[in-house]
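quick q for whoever's on today - can somebody do inverse folding on this one?? i tried earlier but teh output was garbage lol. tokens:
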């Protein structure tokens, strides 16, 4: 699994103008290819009167799914430069749609490539991105007497608590960077006098 990737902080639109043509780049996070396709369809409906609605998306932390469309622009001048910009910025789980309203001046192949790729780059800069990092999931089991202190200490040290369940004992699910697993195991044994259970689970991504 990839150690980390970047994605957009939130959905939004950024507009640029090149030689009187308007380029509106709509960006959004997309957890699945279906979400990406739904977003593309929504933008196309909204801008049905536009000259072109070109798109690119990257799904998967390892960029397993990559799609791009020129939507009538000369082949390779719109969707591909948009996709290349997303990949160059290490963007994942993201969809970009660039809507063009033609302004009467032809840009040529080089101009189109710069305009479409640039629209995505400017939108990323304007809307903002954030990093998600790979974590190991871990389950802690502590008695009720120690649970409050452990929970507070986890908060104080900035650990990501994903779930807390109360039963005969208290079960706390957290996420840890791989490099910190052994140090955390030692810390937990120290603060609970060896009384806490600790079990490593699978992997997941969380905000860095």
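ok took a stab at it. sequence:
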């Amino acid at each position: 699994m990839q150690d980390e990737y970047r994605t957009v902080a939130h959905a939004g639109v950024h507009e640029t103008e090149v030689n009187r043509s308007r380029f509106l780049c709509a960006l959004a996070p997309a957890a699945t290819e279906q979400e990406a396709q739904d977003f593309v369809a929504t933008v196309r409906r909204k801008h049905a009167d536009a000259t072109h609605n070109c798109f690119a998306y990257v799904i998967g932390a390892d960029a397993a799914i990559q799609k791009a469309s020129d939507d009538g622009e000369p082949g390779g001048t719109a969707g591909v430069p948009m996709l290349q910009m997303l990949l160059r910025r290490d963007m994942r789980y993201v969809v970009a749609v660039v809507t063009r309203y033609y302004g009467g001046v032809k840009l040529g192949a080089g101009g189109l490539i710069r305009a479409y790729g640039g629209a995505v780059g400017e939108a990323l800069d304007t809307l903002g991105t954030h990093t998600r990092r790979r974590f190991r999931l871990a389950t802690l089991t502590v008695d009720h007497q120690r649970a409050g202190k452990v929970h507070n200490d986890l908060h104080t040290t900035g650990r990501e608590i994903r779930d807390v369940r109360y039963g005969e004992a208290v079960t706390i699910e957290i996420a840890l960077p791989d490099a910190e697993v052994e140090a955390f195991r030692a810390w937990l044994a120290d603060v609970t006098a060896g009384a806490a259970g600790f079990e490593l689970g699978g992997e997941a991504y969380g905000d860095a």
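fwiw Strands lie at 4-8, 12-18, 21-29, 52-59, 65-69, 94-101, 129-142, 160-166, 170-176, 197-207. also Residues 21 and 102 are 5 Å apart (CA to CA). so keep that in mind when u check it
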